[in-house]
Amino acid sequence: MESFSHLNNPIHFQKYLDENHVQKVIEAEFNNEKNYFFIAEYDNEPAGFFKIVFDEHEDQPLLKDKKCLELERIYILNKFQGLKISSEIIDKTFKIAADHQFELVWLGVWENNIKAITIYKKWGFEIFGSHIFNLGGDLQTDLLMRKNVNPHKN
Ligand SMILES: CC(C)(COP(=O)(O)OP(=O)(O)OC[C@H]1O[C@@H](n2cnc3c(N)ncnc32)[C@H](O)[C@@H]1OP(=O)(O)O)[C@@H](O)C(=O)NCCC(=O)NCCS
Asked: Ligand 1: distance of its center to the CA of 65 in Å?
């Protein structure tokens, strides 16, 4: 909420929250066994969270025949941004990918989120496509980025 509300039309943003931040949707997310949620701590305080999804391809042709791990969300609370917590998160994601023999890690990121895109590129992610993200009726473009994590299989 604190990350994106000021960057979007409040009507679309509220509609998105009303449709998605409801108990039924959140419970379904938690009950899906492909989803894993992690809390990032800084000095014993919760500073952010991330979600990974096992074996998610979203029918993307370039992901279809690969064993894929999706890094779906990274959110760092404003007061903890700038501390490179996202680097720890990406590193942890790669470790999980290696432990479970995934071939690549991919993610979608809003095309205007230059900070996040810069960080992902620094970690070796490459843009391979895009998809439309419906934010309460505002159709936004997410860039799709991927990184091979098992060089022997790619
Ligand atoms: C994007 C986000 C995850 C980054 O997390 P973070 O741990 O605070 O990242 P940091 O600010 O410590 O920056 C890490 C790197 O990005 C660089 N960076 C910071 N601000 C930047 C900007 N505006 N543009 C380009 N690069 C930037 C930093 O210089 C740093 O690079 P370095 O490691 O070479 O020094 C965090 O800002 C966040 O949660 N944002 C809101 C939610 C969001 O956008 N999530 C991503 C959804 S895909």
From this structure: 31
